[in-house]
Amino acid sequence: MQTYYNLLNPTAGNIIAGVYPNQDYKQSIDNAVSHNMGVIVIRSLAGGAVAGPVRAELASRIPGGEMAKGNDYGSDLRRAEALRFLTTNGRTVAQASIRFATENPKVPIVLVGFSDKAQIDDAVAAAGSASLTSAELETMADLWANDFNI
């Protein structure tokens, strides 16, 4: 089963407090695993929005696009601005988003899109980057519950 799962929309693997205004994937990861299905995470960088507008523009003249309710590229870029606090000890926000997906024990495969070799190197470096801390995950839960205050 393929599903979106990233720092901007974690609903395939997380329950969000409050009323979540965007596409809710209703813990589809747990549902798939409960039916003995494998899981493939797609859009781990939210169509490039997590990596930032400059990087995303390398892939397409019209990056992103609305692929799910409430997750158009422009609003995802605004949400991604709130993730800058995750840039620590040389870890990029893109690496944090990849780590978030790969650290879900129910997710064996995370697909990462890229436009050039530097992006491939960044994705590979995610494996050695720092895991998200409990404090960072608590901050993320607050951001998710309040739609990143946008």
Key traits:
TIM Barrel, mainly alpha, 150 residues, 5% strand, globular, 35% helix
Q: How many domains comprise the coordinates?
A: 1
Q: By CATH's scheme, which homologous superfamily applies? A: NADP-dependent oxidoreductase domain
Q: What is the name of the CATH architecture?
A: Alpha-Beta Barrel
Report the span from N to C terminus: 31 Å
User: Major sheet: size, sense and barrel closure?
Assistant: 3 strands, parallel
List how many beta strands DSSP finds: 3
CATH topology, what is it called?
TIM Barrel
Radius of gyration: 14 Å
Helix content: 25-40%
Could you give the order of the helices and strands?
EHEHHHEHH
- How much of the sequence lies in strands comes to 5-15%
Structural class: mainly alpha
According to CATH, what is the class?
Answer: Alpha Beta
How many DSSP H or I helices?
A: 6
Q: Unreliable segments (pLDDT under 50, ≥5 consecutive)? A: none
Per the principal axes of the C-alpha atoms, what is the gross shape? globular
User: Strand sequence of the main sheet, in spatial order?
Assistant: 1-2-3
Overall mean pLDDT score? 89
What does this protein structure show overall?
With 150 residues, the protein is mainly alpha-helical. The chain has a single domain, classed as Alpha-Beta Barrel (TIM Barrel). Helices cover 35% and strands 5% of the residues. The protein contains 6 helices and 3 strands. A 3-stranded parallel beta sheet has the order 1-2-3, with helices on one face. Helix 1 links the parallel strand 1 (2-4) and strand 2. The longest helix has 12 residues, at 134-145. It is globular. The model has no long low-confidence stretch (mean pLDDT 89).
